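cron nightly-structures :: item 1 of 1
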Amino acid sequence: MTEAQSVTLSAERQRVSLFDILRAYLLVGATAFGFAILPKLKALVVGKGWLSEEEMNEGIALVQLYPGPIMVDFTAYTGYKLRGVPGAITATLGFIAPSFALISALSAGYFASGKLPWVHPLFLGLEALVIGVIFNVTVDFAANWVRGRMHAAIAVGAFVASLYGVNAVTIALIALLVGALTLRPRPAGSASVRPASPAAPRASPLRWLAISAVVAVILVVAGICWGLHSDLGDLSLALFKIGSVAFGSGIAIIPLVQAEVVKAHHWLTLSQFADGVALGQVTPGPFLITAAFVGYKIGGIAGALLATFAIFSPSFAMTLVFTEVFAHLRNLTPVRGALAGVLAAFVGLLADVLLQLASVGIAGPASLAFAAGAFAAVRYFKLDVVWVFLGGVALWAGLYVLGVA
């Protein structure tokens, strides 16, 4: 970027307060659903001048390199870039809080009544809309990151590998290696290259002290859970473990939660867990908020809080560490090539997610029409995804009542 653009971006960051971050992410957390979260986050951070386009893309690539839910970690990344550890905490709390409040209320109603019969029909319509939005995100990523034969080969290879069940972390590591060895993005300042992000500031001892404090708090809470010797303690430890080792989106991590909650410990029946997953889809915000549903079943609102902390906190701490380290390595040519490789692979991974969702979510002409309509609405009519979801779900509910959907 030019010197004037760099100064403008720095000035925008200087004006961002913790209250600004909280207010913005509360809005995103209350209005963005599933994979539609990504375009909402992009519009927020780039539209407000908080991050450059390149920094945003670097962040999306970075959060795929370690375990945890990608969108929550990207939120923490943005907050950390803006205001250090307090900014990361503020952004993450703002993003999670609306969905936590909603799913806690829905969980209370669910476990009081025993069922929510409207969830599954509504979920079918919502899933069709999500498919349309994911398709748009996939097309955008392909346009930005599949720029040559090697990029295309990495994307296709990632798609095929994911299709055959290869672990996402294995795919990401291979893409990193191939990108570092074969891709050579043009240096910053070239006319055809995206604007470069500002130079990283020198590492502050205070930032490392704050990161250490975060890690210490997480370890203390995990130790307390270990000492509880109860179902709630065991659930929290299981979620800490999953949050520490599971890669990918919420959809990819949910099967690990099911294995612990349903198969290993029988805290929920399969039907109850399926309803919890559906509630995680129909509420805005991060998909893994389903953990709060499980925690509520075992320990009420305190259990929901502890379960939510356990599933999200390990990767939150990793985000702080990786962001600080990566900021001083990103301008190395092999690192930039590795990032280009991971982002090309992400196109293939998105395509596989799209295929999997479409195989179960497109059940007839109505759902196909809703998916196509959502794609057209966000791509060609530039409608905000929140209106697409609100309008689409309302229309689907009407068709369901009439017996059409």
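cron nightly-structures :: done
The CA atoms of residues 81 and 87 lie 8 Å apart.
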